Amino acid sequence: LELENGPMSVTELVELSGASQSLVSQHLRLLRAGRIVTATRKGREVRYAIADGHVAHIARDATLHIQEGES
């Protein structure tokens, strides 16, 4: 859901999530394969973005649903 705020690099996602670089990269690879995120290269940096606003909406709803079940 961090990508809702705009494109981000792997480094930025690692810093925000606290996950390892390899784990974030692996998840992004799978999300790209599923066409959920897109990647744009700028020099040596790759920026990832949500491919479709509907995907962000579904992810947000799923997260809220999970949080409701925890209370």
How would you classify the helix and strand content by structural class?
A: alpha+beta
Q: What's the helix count?
A: 3
Principal-axis shape equals: globular
**Got a strand count?**
3
Given as residue ranges, the uncertain stretches (5+ residues, pLDDT < 50) are: none
Q: What is the overall pLDDT average?
A: 91
Give an overview of the whole structure.
The protein is α+β, with helices and mostly antiparallel strands and 71 residues long. Helices cover 55% and strands 20% of the residues. The protein has a three-stranded antiparallel sheet. A hairpin with a 2-residue loop joins strand 2 (37-42) and strand 3 (45-50).
Give me some keywords for this one:
71 residues; alpha+beta; three-stranded antiparallel sheet; 3 helices
Topology diagram in text:
Layout: E1 8-9, H1 10-17, H2 21-33, E2 37-42, E3 45-50, H3 53-70
Antiparallel strand pairs: 1-3, 2-3
Concise overview:
This protein is α+β, with helices and mostly antiparallel strands and about 70 residues long. The protein is built from three helices and three strands; from the N terminus they run E-H-H-E-E-H.
